[in-house]
Amino acid sequence: MKVNADLHIHGKYSQGVSNKMEIPVIASESQKKGIDIVGTGDILNPRWMQHVKKETNGEGLRKHDQTYFALTTEVEDENRVHHLLIFPSMSEVEAAYHDFKQISKDIRSEGRPRIQASGTKIAELAEKHGALTGPAHIFTPYTGIYGNHDSLQQCYTNCTDTINFLELGLSADSRMASQISGHNEISLLSNSDAHSPWPHRLGREFNTFKLKQYSFKHLKKSIQKGPAKNIGLDPREGKYHRTACNRCYKQYSLKQAEKQAWKCRECGSRIKKGVKDRVKELKDQKPTSRPEYLHLPPLSNIIQQLEGHSSPTTKTVQRRWRNLYNKLGSEAYILVDADITEIEEVDEEVAIAVNKFRNGKYDFVEGGGGNYGKIII
Ligand SMILES: [Zn+2]
Ligand SMILES: [Zn+2]
Fold first, then answer.
1. Pick from 313, 305, 344: which is nearest to 327 by CA?
2. How far apart are CA 35 and CA 302, in angstroms?
3. CA 245–ligand 2 middle distance (angstroms)
4. CA of 143 to the centre of ligand 1 (A)
5. Strand runs (DSSP E) across 77-142, as ranges?
6. pTM for this one?
7. For residues 126 and 56, what is the distance between their CA atoms, to the nearest angstrom?
8. Over the stretch 241-295, which tens digit does the pLDDT of each residue have?
9. CA angle, 241 as apex, 239 and 246 as ends, to 5°?
10. d(CA 13, CA 18)
């Protein structure tokens, strides 16, 4: 069967995360988005662990209503690199908690704990507990592996071969990541890193897997094989796509930025190297063939543009979104699978826009310096 999975989100105990990020809300919003398997996020946090235990049932993949939850967490290593872990069972989560709490001061309070250890040590602990692991949002300048290292080996040393996947992050897609030969044998995942359950956050990027049945064992196989499809933002929409000032967002070429010693000409603040330029520095081969990557923005962002609103959470945008959902089904179905004529019957303007996105006929104001890009329909 074909399932959609978003394996990286955060619960309400993580910094800067909406109070609404609780299991029942995440479960019901995932259904509306068309996400079948969602990560619990933050599973090493004791309070979140209790919440997950209380609200879900089952072993490796736990369930709340119709939504399956994979036991996931993100951790930060001593070099500020972020790693994603997917555990096989609650008992391994508990065992891993006892190992990780020896090397973390904030594991009880934070959803995404800081670990006083290297990427290698984290990969070792993941393997010890049967967890799948890989670096999160790999090109993100502050906390991605390539913000701190020039290769996977530099981070994971003798454990590099145990890495199961790389997470692309919002500012990159598989075409960009496939230009680095060190990635050749590794699956590329696209996840949302959602901090709120709004439909333009949760599941804004996801993976389509072929799955034999709902179990950790089968999810593991599917992840190792790689997704059948990645669905996510156009990298130009990501907030770190271009090299740009982190205060006024003025964009620079790599050469210009170097010439100015990474100081903004306009406001004097720091220029942050964008993902596009970072890939240029690291690439050592032509893009290789990877599963199809569909560049689709969240439906509420499409409606927001059509309405000319500054936010996708306005009542008008949400009403129009709900109308489509009530008549057609989940957002993933509308964006990826529905016949354009079927959408047309409900909302002609949205049908035309979705068709444009499916065919790559749109433009962007590119993001950079921490500022999201903008769709131009
Ligand atoms: Zn992160
Ligand atoms: Zn500036």
1. 344
2. 19
3. 5
4. 6
5. 82-87, 132-135
6. 0.95
7. 23
8. 999 999 999 999 999 999 999 999 999 999 999 999 999 999 999 999 999 999 9
9. 55
10. 9
Residue 60 Cα, ligand 1 centroid: separation in angstroms? 23
Burial per residue of 140-178, b for 16 or more beta-carbon CB atoms within 10 angstroms, e otherwise:
bbebbbbbbbeebeebbeebbeebbbbbbbbbbbbebbb
Element (H, E) at 119: helix 119-128
Looking at all shown ligands, the one closest to residue 141's CA atom is 1
Contact 231, 205 (CB under 8 A): yes
- What tokens appear for 307 in the block? 């309405």
Q: Residue 263 Cα, ligand 2 centroid: separation in angstroms?
A: 8
Confidence band for 376, pLDDT divided at 50, 70 and 90: confident
Residue 166, amino acid = L
| Distance separating alpha carbons of residues 153 and 143, to the nearest angstrom | 17
Cα separation, 92 vs 14, in Å, equals 21
Provide the terminal-to-terminal Cα distance of the chain, rounded to the nearest Å: 34
* The pair of three-digit structure tokens given for residue 127, joined into one six-digit string: 């393997």
Which class for 72: exposed (0-12), middle (13-18), buried (19 or more C-beta within 10 A)? buried
Q: What is the pLDDT of residue 233?
A: 93
Residues 101/237, Cβ–Cβ less than 8 Å? no
Going from the Cα of 225 to the center of ligand 1, the distance in angstroms, rounded, reads 24
Q: What is the DSSP letter of 183?
A: G
Residue found by looking up tokens 């479960």 in the block: 27
* Domains in the chain, CATH or no CATH each: 2-232 (3.20.20.140)
- CB neighbours (10 Å) of residue 303? 25
